[in-house]
Specification:
The protein is α/β, with parallel strands linked by helices. It has a single domain (2-223), classed as Rossmann fold (3-Layer(aba) Sandwich). The protein contains 9 helices and 8 strands. The chain has helices at 17-25, 47-60, 74-83, 134-143, 149-152, 177-185, 190-194, 209-212, 214-223, and strands at residues 2-6, 29-33, 66-70, 90-94, 115-116, 147-148, 168-172, 198-202. The chain has a 6-stranded parallel β-sheet, sandwiched between helices. Strands 5-6 form a two-stranded antiparallel sheet. α2 crosses α3. It is globular and about 40 Å long. This is Esterase.
């Protein structure tokens, strides 16, 4: 099965190298995506450009692909389900949740010179980064790609309620399945409150399990594709 892999902010497709290798060993065809403005050299990319890249990959996939979104890119995966509800077989969210219609994609940190650079590790101290050693942190920060401002501040637009029928798996790294269910029940994640098929799975990692637990993450991604 084709499995599209969309990394979160500051990352390009290479973030999935170890996960992709493990998925191939399980007989799947992983397709790591490098998004416009996050690894292709563009600095003027928009959220619409990133959505178009994801939809092109969905359309090019063999059969009905699984679409995996990490962190902020959970919204991109959900936008794919919204635009292609009959094509996407499943959505997997890792360490994040989809933004609601009409809300900004990822305006989490200050823009500088038209882009949102990696803000350093202070905002991620605690469970997010506890499993990253100093070398891993230095490598991540050195390779982090500033996110174009028009991506970060782009507005999410969802239009097709058939997206709620697409099965969802929420992989819970720095938070627990119980916490995720509580947030949804409290109304903090309105999109998943309306989704008809939601499964929660735990992984003992920080916010970037593709770096620290790639084999386990690949197993969880593949588990729902049989």
């Amino acid at each position: 099965m084709d499995i599209l892999l969309i990394a979160g902010l500051w990352l390009d497709g290479s973030a999935w190298d170890d996960v992709a290798s493990a998925l191939r060993a399980r007989g799947h065809r992983p397709v790591p995506l490098t998004l416009p403005g996050q690894g292709d050299g563009s600095t003027s990319a928009t959220l619409d450009d990133q959505v178009a890249t994801v939809l092109d990959a969905v359309d090019a996939a063999s059969g009905n692909p699984v679409v995996v979104g990490h962190s902020a890119a959970c919204s991109l995966a959900w936008l794919a389900a919204d635009a292609r509800p009959d094509k996407v077989s499943q959505v997997v969210f890792i360490g994040g949740f989809p933004a609601a219609d009409g809300t900004p994609y990822a305006d989490f940190f200050e823009l500088r010179d038209g882009a949102m650079p990696f803000p350093g590790w202070e905002p991620f101290e605690g469970p997010d980064s506890a499993d990253l050693d100093e070398d891993a942190r230095r490598t991540f920060a050195a390779n982090a790609i500033p996110v174009p401002g028009a991506v970060a501040t782009g507005v999410v637009r969802l239009t097709d309620e058939r997206r709620f029928k697409v099965p969802v798996v929420v992989v819970c790294p720095e938070f627990t399945p119980a916490q995720a269910e509580e947030w949804i029940s409290a109304g903090d994640v309105p999109e998943l409150a309306r989704a008809e098929h939601v499964e929660f799975v735990d992984i003992d990692s920080g916010h970037w399990p593709m770096h620290t637990k790639p084999a386990e993450l690949a197993r969880l991604i593949a588990a729902g594709t049989a």
